[in-house]
Automatic annotation (TrEMBL):
Family designation: Belongs to the zinc-associated anti-sigma factor (ZAS) superfamily. Anti-sigma-W factor family.
Domain of life: Bacteria
Residue ranges annotated for the Putative zinc-finger domain, each copy included: 3-37
InterPro entries: Anti_sigma_zinc_sf, Znf_put
Pfam short name (any one): zf-HC2
Protein name, entry field: Anti-sigma-W factor RsiW
Length: 204
């Protein structure tokens, strides 16, 4: 038997496609030909390797799958409030403005008990410690704001009088042509500050 024919029979033999007489002829040739015998052994080894690979369970284990899934970064989910802020920029800006105003005015409210007097005619007032006195017969033209002190009015005020976190006393001789505001609560004071701010901006 020629080697070429023996090689072709080897493949058929490994596929179990050879008849018994052909198997006997191939075995006889392999006993006589060392080259074909070596080739057949390598072919057998290759065939066994392929068989083991094709019949081996190559599916990943559950543990390996879990570890791989754990290493995959999870997609970032945006919080609902972030989407709401993006969809309502005007409301967000207004809310932030009010929050800043509230915090700043509240901090001013807690700054201390220092006496503050605002008027264009300060020289007409009498200040004794934390008491501001508008003397009898004296006329103050314009608005007056007094914070953290007692206010005693004996004279005349041609304007508004605002007393913040203090006490107000009006004598029988007193006359105030404008509004009198006595603010002694934090929220009232904050609202007064905000309205005053907008009033100042409007008149500038």
């Amino acid at each position: 038997m020629e080697c070429k024919l023996a090689v072709s029979l080897m493949h058929d033999y490994l596929d179990n496609d050879l008849s018994e007489p052909q198997q006997l002829e191939l075995k006889k040739h392999l006993l006589e030909c060392a080259d074909c015998r070596n080739y057949f052994e390598k072919l057998q080894q290759t065939d066994m390797l392929l068989f083991s690979l094709t019949h081996h369970d190559t599916r990943p284990s559950d543990d390996l799958t879990d570890r791989i899934m754990a290493m995959i970064p999870k997609p970032k989910t945006q919080k609902r409030w972030v989407n709401w802020v993006r969809n309502h920029p005007a409301i967000t800006a207004a809310a932030l403005f009010l929050l800043v105003m509230f915090c700043s005015t509240l901090s001013l409210w807690n700054q201390g008990n220092q006496l503050v007097v605002k008027t264009d005619e300060l020289e007409k007032l009498v200040i004794e410690g934390k008491t501001v006195i508008i003397p009898e017969g004296q006329t103050i033209t314009g608005d007056i704001t007094i914070e953290n002190g007692k206010t005693k009015v004996y004279g005349q005020v041609d304007g508004n009088l605002t007393v913040i976190d203090g006490e107000l006393f009006q004598a029988s001789t007193a006359h105030i042509s404008g509004q009198v505001k006595d603010i002694d609560k934090a929220m009232d004071w904050i609202w007064y500050k905000i309205t005053s701010l907008f009033t100042d901006v409007a008149y500038r």
